[in-house]
Amino acid sequence: MREAGLPGATLETRHVFNDASLCLDAAIAGQGVMLAWQTLAGFSLQQGQLVAPFGIRAKTGFGHYFVTAEGSREPKKVKDFKAWIREEMAGTLKLFP
Length: 97
Description:
This protein has helices at 20-28, 38-46, 76-93. With 97 residues, the protein is an all-alpha fold. The two termini are 20 Å apart.
């Protein structure tokens, strides 16, 4: 809120969702605003279903990790999958300034 020049406020009325995609659907339907990960809201932003009103990007420190047992060999299909995921994520991230 401070980054956008807005004072922090307590919300009296609000919607609570247990799944981020449900919150995204509600925002697209005009039921409010949300703070979203770029990877979740990117397509909707690109299609004009949503707008980023402040143009602010905040680093969350969250990440995605590939985890395997120490010392294990990765089969080719696992290496191929990891390469595909990395390519997809790189393509998605290029959509954002």
